[in-house]
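--- STAGE predict ---
source: upstream dedup step, 1 unique chain passed
mode: sequence only
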Amino acid sequence: MWLLTALLLWVPVGGQVANFTKAVIILQPPWVNVFREENVTLWCEGPQLPGHSSIEWFLNGTTIQTSTPRHNITAASFSDSGEYMCQTGLSAPSDPVQLEIHGAWLPLQPSKRVLTEGKPLTMRCHGWKNKLVYNVVFYPNRKPIKFSDRDSALTILKANMNHSSVYHRSGKGPVPSPVPFTSTRVPVMVKGLQSLISVLPYIIYYTTLTLQFLLHMYVCVGLCQDLPSELNWNWESASASDHGEEVTSENPKDI
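--- STAGE serialize ---
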């Protein structure tokens, strides 16, 4: 039954190769750039064996001590920056999540650096220790696209490949200053969806494997049901022969 489950998990769905066995990391709060001394939680989601809940966590390719679905970072420091991955009992390793800890007063906080076309993208304007930021302007590839008097976020409900860019933003702090603060530049990449034609061979291949498995199971069940009656008939025939009795076939297969 586990083989059938594994095969079904790889069957392509909706025009994409659906790799449901890959673990997924979810950030809370959902920003890949965070301030020093802030708290961050990473959640690992993925299929598990019944009765097992252990998780492997990796930071820059090295296993870390956490073995639960939740990895907490309290009062984040620069040493917490890096590439995080996780893996559950029945999953492949997750896609890497690059977490950066900043000491700058005005970092740009995107929800993701890499995302799939059609997914939402949010970039937040957020000052150090929740200080207000005024006159906020967002720039993709140095071109201003949004202005706000107060702290705000740039939200793209359905990102497409045209939204791939290098973003930064500018803003002023609570003390009036003729020169606005400018964040570091953050690249964001939107990946396109695969076409149905490109995944058609995967659909045929994995569907065929699943049907073969079901056919073998059906044959096996049929053989197992016939085996006890054949063994019982053979035993009775042998017993009658030992007593010199004539053996009359009652095996349904001889009729």
